[in-house]
Structures are given as C-alpha cells and as structure tokens.
Amino acid sequence: MTLPRPVPEAALLRLRRSYALLMLLLGVPVLAAVVYVLMLQFEIVSIGTQRQIAMSTDRRVTRLDAVLAPLRDNLLRLRDAVAEPTLTPEVAADRESFAPTADGSAWTLDALPAVLRDSAPQVLLAGPQRSDAARRDAAIGRAAVFAQQARLLGAGRGGLRRVIYVDAAGTQAWVHPWTGSEQLLAELQAASVAEAVQKLAQRHARGGRVYRDAVARQRRDDGVIAATVPLDLQERPGVIAVELPAAALDAARIEAGIGRFWVIDADGAVVWDYKARSEPAGSALDGELPALSADTLAEAASAPLAVRSGPLLLSARPSAVAPWRAVYASDNAHVRQLVMADVGPYAVGGAALLLLFLGTATVLWRRYALPSLRLVDYLHRKALDPQAEEPSLPSAWAPWAQLTRDTFDAARSAREGEQRAEALKSAIVDNALAAIMSTDAHGRIVEFNPAAESMFGRRRAEVLGQSVMETIVPPRHRAGHEAAIRALREGGALDTLGRRTEMMAMHASGREFPVEVVIWRTALGGQRISPPRSPISRSGARRPSRSSASARRCARARSFRRWAACSPAWHTS
C-alpha cells in the first residue's frame, strides 16, 4: 500500500497567499478609513488654525483700539478746552517770563523759572501778533489752558512724547512739556525761532490728512506716530498734534503667537511691526515684511478665516479708531508643521489600529487556520496510515488531535472485526459442499460458490449480476419463478420459505436436472435480500413413487445424505 503524503508545501503556500489576499482585501478598507480620518482630522485642525488666526486678529485689533480710543478722546477734549477757554477754570500764567529773543524776531518763554517748567508750556510767537501786547497776553492765557489739559492727556508720561499746537501760517506754536528754544532749533535744524515754527507748521499743520473724528494720524520717518486734530483760534487755522513713539502701542500687550502682526496706514506704510518670538528662522516672515496688494488685503479683511496668500496664512482687520489696518500672518509651512503635530497622535492611533488588524490576522492564521489545515491533512493521512505522524499543533488543539486518533482507532478496530467476520463467512460459503447462491430483490445473482459452479457448469465471474431465471431456471418454469419473486418483492408470502423443495434446474449446457432447494429471506441494512435459496442439492434421477412409503423414505435418506455430504446449496435474494 502506498502511504499518503502530507499536503505539499506549494499547496500551503497557495492557501497562505489566498489568506493574505483576503486579509489585504479586508485591510484595504481599514487603511482607507484610517487615511480618510487622518485627512479629515488634518482638514479640521487646519480650518481651526485658520479660524484661530482670524480670531486672534480680531482680538489684537480690539486691544489696539483700546489704546488708541482714549488718546483720540483726550485729544478731542484738549481741542475743545483750548477752543472754548470759558469751559475751563482760569489758569494762572507767568506772563513776566514771556520775552523777545535777542534778535527780536520772536517771543519765547525761555526765561520761565525751572520750578514752573513741568506745568507750563513753551510759547513761540514769530508773527505780527508778537508786537501786540493784548494778543501776546491772550496767547499766554490759552497756552496755560493748553498745558493744563495736556498734563491730563499724559504728556511726558505714559509713553507720550509731547503735545504741540501750531497755526497753519507758522506764526505761533505751543509745546508741552516745556522745551527750550535752543533744543527745538537743534531738533528741527532751524537757524531761528521763526524758522522752527515754520517747520513745525509744515510737519503737523500741512503734513497730515483729516480722518474720522477729525483726527489724523501718520508715522514719521523718525518712528514717531503723530495724531493731529484741527483747531481754529481767532479765525486762524491750526492743529493740535500729539507725538508718541511706536513703542507706545506696546501697551496693547499683544502676543503675536506663531505669526507676525503689523499695522499699516491708508497709504500702506507700516505704522507698527510686532514680530513673533516663536517664528522659526528661514520662514516667509523672517526679515522684511512681505508686500501685500490691495486686493489681497481686501480679501483677507472680508474673509471669516485666514486666507492663503502664497507661503502665508493671512488675516486683516480694520481699526475702528484709526485709519489703519491690522495684519496678522503666519508662515504656511510652519502652521502645517504645527497641524501635523496635532494630527500626529491620530496618525499613531491609526497605525496602531492597522498593526492590530495585521496582528490579529496573523494570530488567526497561526493559531486557527494553519492548525485546522494540519488537522485536516492528519485526518487524511490517518485514514490510510495508522502510523501517520501527528502534526505540530498548539496545545489548545490537543483534544481534537486526541479525538481524531481515538475515532480512527475505534473505526479501524470495528472495520477489522467486520473484515474477520466477512472472511469467516466467505470461507464457510466457499468451502461448503452444498451449492449456495444468493440473489438481490430483483433476482440478480450476487453470490455463487464453487459448489454451484460445479453443479451448473458456470463460472462465478460469468453469472454475477445475471438474472437467476435466465441462468439456472428452465424456460418453461421462468414465468412462475418470476411471479414468485415479484410477490416476495411486494411483501407477499411464500409457503416454501425455510422448507426443502424439489424443482428442476438447468445446466450451462441446457440440460435439465432435478434439485432440492431450501429457500430463506434475509434483510441487510433494511433492504430485503429475497428470495435466498440454500442449499441446493441434486435429487435422484427418478422421483420416488407416492404409493411406496419405504421408497420415499429411502429416497429422502439418500437425498439427505447427498445434501449433507456432497450437495451444493443455492441462496438467492
């Protein structure tokens, strides 16, 4: 017997590949879902960052306006107080210290005592009114009110540099806090007081434009921010100007975060630049501020979220106090890095989920799928080879392997017992002296022992499957025999069952001869095997006479001896 071979490695490899393909088909949707969730999370965080930039711009503009609004309001109150001195109490003024310059071209308060300089202004008169005592006296009185209100505005404190009044004609100027004329001449690079007043008029009375609330603001080249408001005195137009450094806006305490915040005026000039401390080197905002077109600024100002403009994320908002526009920008690459850092945990979670899926698939293959295949292979080999080698299985599969061994051992023992019983029956039938023949329910021969071969002159292989009527029953008796078989097949009774019966049989040569037959019926597996006939023995050449009892007894004894000693038997079904 050829022993069965284990399942070829190539077959296992093909199955493993099929399993891997199945896991891949299952894993692709999982991977797609993970990628989709990561992309969605990236988009959510990106939009959230853009919204935060826009909201940060709104907060910064609000804080900036909180600094500028009191300055505007105080400047307007100062203008009203100077324009209508009757609205304020009379302020004492040191008119004795008001004296002409050495060349007589102007009058100043350079002679003001030092103890009064913190509260009094510097008054410069360079026009025709210097010759009129009444006008000089009126100028000193208004300048005292101007100084008092300027102190309330915070001149000299809180980051303010100075407060100045100058008429548009360049004939009169007031400066608070008090500043000596020599210092003003050096600062303005003027040769005389009259020239200094003219330069102040050019800087403040003609250099700015009037915006809402009649307050104009501009940033000079020296970094000073000037806010001006018109003031007409005695039908002579002029302005009140407040000078403050750009650093005074630091009072807004604006944290720039991850970007850069700056303020531009209506002409696009930068008023204030606040650079982020956390902006990485080499970014688009490292160095000079980027040039932005009017359309880009308009889009950024109207968008609810920060907009992308080249390498920048940009948001802009107008000031409600000044004619300025606040711009907040962040480097897009830097923001993307921060977004990726926020999405990183989700990416790690997705990778862990995918690894968990792959690990689960691997465990299923190693602990369940592969042991199942090995057990099936073992079942196949164990069915053919009792000594088949057991496969290597996990401990959890040991009961199944034991069950397989016990089942096959029990089945093999039962089959060996059946084989021994069948061999014993075959030996009895083959070696019986009586002719034994068996047929099925349709009268086909299924057993034909050697004694039957000798009696009927036919080989066993020749008659198996043949009809018993056409083989051993003479033609003239076949109709009756067929009717008897049909009756038995349909459940009828036969009075000759189990009894010795004489009948005529036919040899292979066509010769007829008498036989004695014993017929019985057997059921195998619920199927009737009928009608069996056993044994079959030859009768005498002549039938005994019915009138001679002794002759019948002698014939029966002779027939019995022949059946017991040398007669064949016939068993049909």
UniProtKB/TrEMBL annotation:
GO terms for biological process: regulation of DNA-templated transcription. Keywords: Membrane, Transmembrane, Transmembrane helix. The chain crosses the membrane at residues 21-42, 346-365. Residues 529-553 are annotated as: Disordered. Gene3D superfamilies: PAS domain. It holds the Pfam family PAS. Residues 529-539 have a biased composition (Low complexity). Residues 421-492 form the PAS domain. CDD domains: PAS. InterPro entries: PAS, PAS-like_dom_sf, PAS_fold. This is PAS domain S-box protein. It comes from Piscinibacter aquaticus.
